[in-house]
Amino acid sequence: MEGWPALIPGGKRLARSLAVLGLVASSAGCILTKDLPDPALDIPEGYKAARLSKAADAPPTLDWWRGFRSRELTGLMEEAQTVNLDIAAATARFRQADAQARIAGAALLPTLSATGQETYSRTSRSSTSGLTIGGREVVNYSASLSASYELDFWGKNRDAAQAAEETSVATRFDRDVIALTTLTTVANAYFQVLAAQDRIRTAQRNIASAERILNAIKERLTAGTGTDLDVAQQESVVANQRALVPPLRQTLDQNINALATLVSRPPEAVRVTGGSLNQIAAPRVTPGLPSELLTQRPDIRRQEAQLASATANVGSARAQFFPSIQLTGQGGYQSSALSSLFQPQAAFFSLVGSLTQPIFDGGRILGNFEFTKARQDELLQTYRKTVVQAFADVDTALTSIRQTTERLRLQRQVVAASRRAFELSEQQLRAGTADIVTVLNTQQTLFQAEDLLWQAQLARLLAIVSLYQALGGGWEPRMERPVDAL
């Protein structure tokens, strides 16, 4: 049907009308200044817990986990990025949001439909008086195009489309939030596996030490310099150390199973070699400036996009108070003979313009407008809280790193002193000069100190991971827009 408006009387006038509609549509729709919210953010000049932060400090790299220098951790991270089911579901959600944005943007364009029809009718051969008359058969052919367009003079459709686009942007940032959470969870679970393995090895070594002391005490009992009480007390120490192993193995299995879930594999198909926390490097993380956090964290960008969507919805809701202008047009060909269907004399067309002004709707439009305003205010407060919480998260993580580092340093001193005390008490025990109470105390102190040392190392690594997460985890601040709704 290409070129059919030119064959219809007044077709050029219709084409000009559609062109005007396009110009109006391209310029219509804007958000009023009074609809734009003021976040009133109080951005500090620096983090309270950061002592040496400089403006030139670089944010974490995109592959921040490589700073721990663990090939196995890097492999798990890369695998999680490609097969994690939460990330896949989030990706599907932003594709849904893209489709919704295209649906909302469709109102900005005219609708066009084509119709082809053949009508066959035959009149009766008898009349109501009972007299027989000749019947008549009629065949009609028609082909037409119908177009409809709403003038978006007040920006209702434009704002609705913009709201849908911003929602789609928000779902992209939501995917990045989920990806960041997934990666930090992988790192935390992996370090938990290493810590459990270290603590199990330490517990088994302590069991061997306790059994060695038990044998020495039994030798003293045989020689007549020990008592049954001494033996019973040491047997209690051995039993207590053995009882610590099952919970540690349970923790190990739980974290391996958690890693299996994160990489979308059954636990039977996951083998974590692990190793020791001593093989993990502790990278230095620079926080940069608080103002940079507004673009570094995907959760802040997500809330920002959701607020922008709500603001556009306010404009769309306000526009519903004003008249809507609808233009419809139809044109085509109609003939009783198929051979003459597309002749100029068979052409027809119609163009109708209508205006609808809401007068009384029981408060529906007003209620919708008040709802969108309240929704905008809710998202504004949520955005402000997200920013404030982000600053607190970074300060908390920085404090945690500093304190866990100090705790680790002090705990190493505790272990060194406890080990020396235990070695001396064991030497005195074998020499027959040590008090059994002293031996019991020194070995229990050492066993506890060694276990706490691994926990201190784990706490420091988890604090570093939490700082990566608080800073956005190396997430690349990009404005990935959805597919154009138009």
UniProtKB/TrEMBL annotation:
Name of this protein: RND transporter
GO CC annotation terms, alphabetical: plasma membrane
Residues in the signal sequence: none
Domain of life (superkingdom): Bacteria
Keywords: Coiled coil, Lipoprotein, Membrane, Palmitate, Transmembrane, Transmembrane beta strand
PANTHER family xrefs: BLR4455 PROTEIN, OUTER MEMBRANE CATION EFFLUX PROTEIN
Family designation: Belongs to the outer membrane factor (OMF) (TC 1.B.17) family.
Coiled-coil segments: 193-220
Primary localization: membrane
Topology term for the membrane: Lipid-anchor
Gene3D superfamilies to which the protein is assigned, alphabetical: Outer membrane efflux proteins (OEP) (1.20.1600.10)
Native source organism of the sequence: Bradyrhizobium valentinum
Subcellular location: Cell membrane
